[in-house]
Amino acid sequence: MTRGRFITLEGGEGAGKSTQARRLAEALRAVGHEVVLTREPGGSPGAEVLREVLVNGAADRWTPTAEALLMYAARSDHLDRLIRPALARGAWVISDRFADSSRAYQGAAGGLDPAFIEALDRGVVGEDQPDLTLIFDLPASAGLARAADRGAAEARFEGKGAAFHERLREGFAAIARAHPERCVMIDADATPDAVFDRIWTVVRERLA
Fold first, then answer.
1. Residue 192 has what pLDDT?
2. Taking the alpha carbons of 89, 90, 92, 96 in that order, is the dihedral positive or negative?
């Protein structure tokens, strides 16, 4: 059986990833694909338990090192129990966040040594890297304003301060520059329909 395709959506707070992930899943199902829509942290029962302690509480609840370890513990369970089995049976997997969020949040913005994150990634993710990563780019102030407007309960990362979120945006941009073979920047400051049109064009061109 042909292995499925793995698409990840990345970006800062309020960039609209969750909405666009749902739209992409619907579009791929409409053309006949089995699609598994998931998220991080979370996506499996064990990973959802860890999500609760990662996205709630004070902004400084965890150090970047502790955050990264918890994120990769959740990611390991997510991969073993959901992502790998789905890909093996030929399904397309769309994940709202994946390993690039660790590189950007704990690494670029949090100051954790990138070598430490990459060592975790080799051990946990290994060869199961995304086929395509869509990085939603939006000014940090605009994203935080959107997030505040929606009144999200899980707001721990939103409380890390403007400088953190500026570093986060640059961190994601740096990932896109370093990995053009799998990463595409998406202008998230456009209308939802324009954003989706861009996403659908990229998916068809890259993963036809």
1. 95
2. positive
Domain ranges of the chain: 6-207
Contact 52, 41 (CB under 8 A): no
The DSSP letter of residue 57 is S
b (16+ CB within 10 A) / e for 170-189: ebbbebbeeeeebbbbbebe
Q: Are 38 and 83 in contact (CB under 8 A)?
A: yes
The topology under which CATH files domain 6-207 is Rossmann fold (3.40.50)
Residue with tokens 């499925």: 4
Phi and psi at residue 153, to the nearest 5°? -75, -35
Question: In terms of pLDDT, which residue wins out, 118 or 15?
Answer: 118
Instruction: Return the CA Rg of the chain.
Output: 16
- pTM: predicted TM-score of the whole model, two decimal places: 0.94
Contact call for residues 47 and 86 (beta carbons, < 8 A):
no
Higher local confidence (pLDDT), 149 or 171:
171
88 vs 34: CA distance, rounded Å: 12
Distance CA 17, CA 109 (A): 19
